[in-house]
Design goal:
Blueprint (H helix, E strand, L loop, with lengths): L1 E3 L7 H23 L2 E3 L12 H13 L24 E6 L3 H5 L20 E5 L2 E6 L3 E3 L2 E7 L4 E5 L5 E6 L11 E7 L2 E5 L5 E6 L3
């Protein structure tokens, strides 16, 4: 990023955000496109729609493969209208499927959890056995949405020591700008994301109306 020197400080948060978004996108593409998958066939009125029976099948498949849930149980409380949350896998869902997800039987919003401690950033609720994180960067291909459902040790990343710099800065006097008007800010990372155990995750493929 090349910027007027006096505005450089204002761009720091923007650079951090783009760094995180880029890493998340690399992880997303790997998870959605290289893991074992299940295509929805029980939707109504259109078979490939996201539906509760298919989510149950995904959870059952992971359990049969000895995949371990990521989250621990949220115990019952005395709060009115709240519900306990059993140990769960973690699913990633596109924002465009939000209305479909919340219309599924058994869906519970975080405001109705017995406790809202230890929630994930972007968590929008749970279905049986899955706690869902919502993102506008969810993976799509044509009309198909890819929903990775993760257990423990499903994937990892590799970084090269010394090859990462979350925020680099060259002041105007060393950035090569005429009359020292411009400074340069940047980030760099050598990063690889890969599946560690395909039995610990499953991607559900569905469409929406």
């Amino acid at each position: 990023l090349t910027e007027l020197s006096q505005q450089a400080a204002e761009k720091v948060q923007w650079l951090y955000d783009t760094f995180g978004l880029t890493i998340d996108t690399i992880d997303r593409d790997m998870l959605a496109t290289t893991a074992s998958s299940l295509t929805c066939t029980n939707g109504s009125p259109t078979a490939p729609l996201l539906n509760a029976p298919e989510l149950d099948t995904a959870v059952q498949t992971l359990k049969n493969q000895d995949a371990q849930p990521i989250t621990e149980m949220i115990a019952p409380s005395t709060g009115q209208g709240t519900t306990p949350v059993m140990p769960s896998f973690v699913g990633i869902i596109h924002t465009e499927l939000w209305t479909v997800l919340k219309g599924l039987p058994g869906f519970v919003e975080p405001k109705n959890y017995a406790s809202r401690n230890d929630m994930f950033p972007g968590e929008v609720g749970k279905t049986d056995g899955i706690r869902w994180i919502e993102t506008s960067r969810g993976y799509k291909s044509g009309s198909n949405y890819y929903l990775p459902i993760l257990g423990q040790d499903a994937y990892g990343n590799v970084k090269i020591p010394g090859g990462e710099k979350v925020l680099g800065f060259k002041p105007a006097e060393t950035a090569g700008s005429e009359m020292d008007r411009y400074s340069v800010m940047y980030w760099k990372s050598n990063y690889v994301s890969r599946i560690l155990d395909d039995l610990n995750m499953l991607t559900l493929i569905c469409t929406r109306t």
